[in-house]
Amino acid sequence: xxxxxxxxxxxxxxxxxxxxxxxxxxxxxxxxxxxxxxxxxxxxxxxxxxxxxxxxxxxxxxxxxxxxxxxxxxxxxxxxxxxxxxxxxxxxxxxxxxxxxxxxxxxxxxxxxxxxxxxxxxxxxxxxxxxxxxxxxxxxxxxxxxxxxxxxxxxxxxxxxxxxxxxxxxxxxxxxxxxxxxxxxxxxxxxxxxxxxxxxxxxxxxxxxxxxxxxxxxxxxxxxxxxxxxxxxxxxxxxxxxxxxxxxxxxxxxxxxxxxxxxxxxxxxxxxxxxxxxxxxxxxxxxxxxxxxxxxxx
Length: 298
Fold this sequence. Notes:
Layout: H1 2-9, E1 13-18, H2 55-69, E2 74-79, H3 89-100, E3 105-112, H4 119-129, E4 133-141, H5 145-150, H6 157-168, E5 173-180, H7 187-200, E6 204-209, E7 212-213, H8 217-224, H9 232-245, E8 251-254, E9 264-266, H10 273-287
Parallel strand pairs: 1-2, 2-3, 3-4, 4-5, 5-6, 6-8
Antiparallel strand pairs: 7-9
C-alpha cells in the first residue's frame, strides 16, 4: 500500500483514522445487539486521537501525529469506527462533503458493512470519486457462514460479493478485510477465504490476526473456555499461503494488526508488529515464493 500511494501521489501518504459517531445495525437492535463478537467498544477505532472532538480536529491531530513519524506526509481521511455509511444520505453528505472539498486531503477511505450500502449512497460516493479518490473497505473476515454466525456478523457472504460487484462498476476503489484464527477455522478455511477474495478481485485486501480485546464477547468466551489461537509461526505460514493465492496486482494494505497493549488479552505476540512482518518476509524468502505464485485466474 505504501508503494501504491507513493506511485499515485508522488509523496508519502498516511491514513488518518476518524470516528464520526456511527453505529452498526447489529449493535442498535436493527439486526442484533452487541456487534460482532470480536469488535471492541470503539468499533475498531481504538487508536483514534481526540475521538470526542470534531472530525476536522481529529483529522488535524491525527495528521500531526503521522507527520512526526513522516515529516510532510500527506493524509487520507479514514473513517474507521463502526459502519460509516449507516445513516441517511443527507447525514452522510454533512460528514463527508467537507473532506471532499479539502485540498490537503488526498483521498477519503470509508470502512463499512455490505448491508449498509444502498444504491443512493453508492451513487453519491461514485460522483465524489470522479473528483477525489474514494475507498470503500468492507468487513468480510471469513467467507464461512458458520464462522460468521458465531461472530454475529448478521449478514451473508453473498451480500458482500453483491455490493463489491456494484462498487467495481464505479470509480470507487475497494478493499476487503479478512481475519485469521477465528474460532474453529482450519488453515485451509482461511486460505479458501483468500481464494474467494482473489476470485472477486477487489483493489486491495487487509489481512488481520484475531485480537481478543477486553470487554468483547469473544474475549469473554475465550476466558470462560479457551480455544486455540494461532501461534506466530502458524500465522506467518498461513499469511504466506494466502499471499500465494492472491493476484499480483492486488494491493496489500495490511498483513497484521496491533491491538492496544493495555486492552489486549491474547495473543501477546501481535503487539510486536515489526517482528511479525519480518517473519513473513523471511519465510517468503526462504521458500522463494511471492504474491500470486499460486493464483488461478478463473
